[in-house]
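Run log // design_07
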């Protein structure tokens, strides 16, 4: 199915097609992501991000590890896989207690925004089953499904969040030139396209093979940094 056909299929499902993707991916969508740095704050403090080159390396690492994993979970949820099963799979792929708590908090916040924007029985059922919040990528995928978007749309949204969050945070943390931060995101676009294709393909296989077909790429340094960051008495970002 090509991009136009995907858009028509989305529209036929009652959603707003690609316009809905713009709303969901907008950093101003009230889902709470603006309060999180995606690991950039501890990376800046540790000196791993000092400039645009460091930001590019950091974002590339996130894109191909936690980003790919999140994108596949979101695509699978958008494709109709059981969100409770996917939530368990997300838990198993998140070894850091701090990051598990963050993922569920963000999932709960996204759920509130999603149900106000694109209410559906599936979102209501997940909210009832996980009152303290399901993992954010799973909620994101189900939100995309409720908005009439495709699994690939959901993957793109998850991947864009993976890199845009740290880029925005680094502008604030380092007073990095926002033009440079935006250029970092633009240069990562081909890799984001590739990761979206991989995530969508894995989600399609998971429909027949189960969640073991989904990526489980790890980023141990992000896990370690998240645990340290959670213990900081003073911090600019929640994670």
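design_07 sequence
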């Amino acid at each position: 199915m090509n991009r136009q056909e995907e858009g028509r299929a989305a529209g036929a499902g009652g959603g707003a097609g690609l316009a809905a993707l713009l709303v969901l991916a907008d950093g101003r969508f009230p889902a709470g992501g603006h309060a999180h740095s995606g690991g950039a704050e501890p990376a800046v403090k540790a000196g791993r991000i000092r400039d645009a080159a460091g930001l590019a390396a950091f974002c590339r690492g996130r894109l191909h590890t936690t980003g790919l994993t999140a994108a596949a979970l979101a695509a699978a949820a958008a494709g109709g896989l059981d969100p409770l099963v996917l939530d368990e799979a997300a838990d198993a792929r998140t070894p850091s207690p701090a990051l598990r708590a963050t993922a569920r908090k963000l999932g709960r916040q996204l759920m509130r925004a999603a149900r106000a924007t694109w209410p559906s029985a599936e979102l209501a059922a997940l909210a009832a089953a996980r009152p303290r919040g399901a993992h954010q990528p799973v909620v994101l995928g189900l939100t995309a499904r409720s908005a009439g978007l495709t699994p690939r749309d959901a993957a793109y949204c998850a991947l864009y969040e993976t890199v845009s969050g740290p880029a925005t945070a680094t502008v604030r943390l380092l007073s990095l030139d926002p033009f440079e931060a935006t250029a970092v995101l633009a240069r990562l676009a081909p890799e984001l396209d590739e990761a979206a294709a991989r995530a969508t393909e894995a989600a399609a296989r998971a429909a027949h093979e189960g969640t073991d077909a989904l990526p489980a790429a790890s980023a141990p340094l992000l896990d370690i940094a998240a645990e340290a960051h959670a213990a900081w008495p003073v911090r600019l970002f929640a994670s």
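The longest helix spans residues 52-78.
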